[in-house]
Amino acid sequence: MRIGITCYPTYGGSGVVATELGIELAALGHEVHFISYSQPFRLNGRDDGIFYHEVPVSNYPLFEFPPYDLALASRMAEVAEFYALDLLHVHYAIPHSVSALLAREMLASRGRRLPFVTTLHGTDITLVGLDRSYLPITRYAIQQSDGVTCISEYLREKTIVDFNVDRPIETIPNFVNCNVYTPLPDEQREKACARRHLAAPHEPILIHLSNFRPVKRVCDVIQVFARIVRQRPAQLVLIGDGPDRSAAEWLAQDLGIQAHVHFLGKQERVGELLALADLLLMPSELESFGLAALEAMACKVPAIATRVGGVPELIDDGVTGLLYPVGDVEAMAAGALDLLGNPARMKAMREAARKTAQERFCSSFVVPRYVRFYEEVLNGQGVARG
After folding, report:
1. Residue 337 phi/psi, 5° resolution?
2. 362 within 8 A of 119, measured Cβ to Cβ
3. How far apart are the first and last CA of the chain?
């Protein structure tokens, strides 16, 4: 198949999933065309069968806000026609599904069929889409899509209820390539930590990975770690960047733990860093899935996380990680300290985390589900417009 993919190319879950999906599809022999305003950050030119098409946006003085959604629709239609795409797969409803709808109608007027699939990722439903400015158009675009998927049952149910959607929605979870995200033997892990000057031998590393938006509660990460490091030597590694980074840096300094905290910024090869950790901290206000936790689990790194959204569908509390109420930094720290002080329990949880990633969320199982879904859409199944 020839598949067009549109996503936000920035450091966030929906863009990561869309990019990794394109890479996996290309590895299966499909031709993938990314259409966006900049190249997705995880694309690095190493993959055959992947092409990138930039969306130019006019800066005409009449426009206070450049109409990216219209430029995207035009570019989608151009790329689809020139490269004979079979379908579009858009990630994050606003504005991508609306642009895909326009592109489909443009080509239909010329006798060309271009179905599109919309994948809902989280805040496009739980935050942006519920804004009264966007709710009617979001609902319409979902209803008009030729196929719709969600990344968790939680998000599927929320979409149906909050948007009064009466069409089929397929739950296809996020995935991880278990051959790329792999654990390191203890000896190699200690050597790698020493090379990066992250920790002394046998000193645990806690890690956090996000786009540092308020919903990720990065300052809670600092608060949890501060309670841990008062009880035992440890290091904290934070991967990513965003609006709450400066607040987290200030808090680490204010608590006197900055020497134990490492802000690494945005990183491309996050799997290599996750494999160095003992625990992941994910104290989010809301997660529709929890991709960072899955990537960590594949590296045998359990998560200390919050019991919100779709997280319980991924993390089996007490088996592959520990779940707590939002904001309960005392309990999260106590749980982390208990695990770090109990090698047998930690080992069992590490093994269970890796096994869950391999058996339920490995790309070799999940990506073929997308391929089958594409085939159903191309055959006209699952469509509910109106």
Report:
1. -65, -40
2. no
3. 28
Q: Is 279 left (phi over 0), alpha (psi -120 to 50) or beta?
A: beta
Q: CB–CB of 120/151 below 8 Å?
A: yes
pLDDT score of 54 more than 90: yes
Q: pLDDT digit string (tens) for 137-148?
A: 888 999 999 999
How confident is the model over 288-297, as pLDDT tens digits? 999 999 999 9
Q: Note whether 2-175+363-378 and 186-360 share their fold.
A: yes
Domain residue spans in the chain? 2-175+363-378, 186-360
Contacts of 286 (CB under 8 A, 6+ apart): 122, 126, 215, 308, 309
d(C-alpha 231, C-alpha 117), whole Å: 50
Q: Please confirm whether the linkage preceding 368 is cis (ω < 30° from 0).
A: no
CATH C-level class of 186-360:
alpha beta
Which comes out higher in pLDDT, residue 40 or 301?
Answer: 301
Most confident of 41-50, 66-75, 335-344: 335-344
Residue 201 has pLDDT above 90, yes or no: no
Model pTM score = 0.91
Determine whether domain 2-175+363-378 maps to CATH 3.30.200.20: no
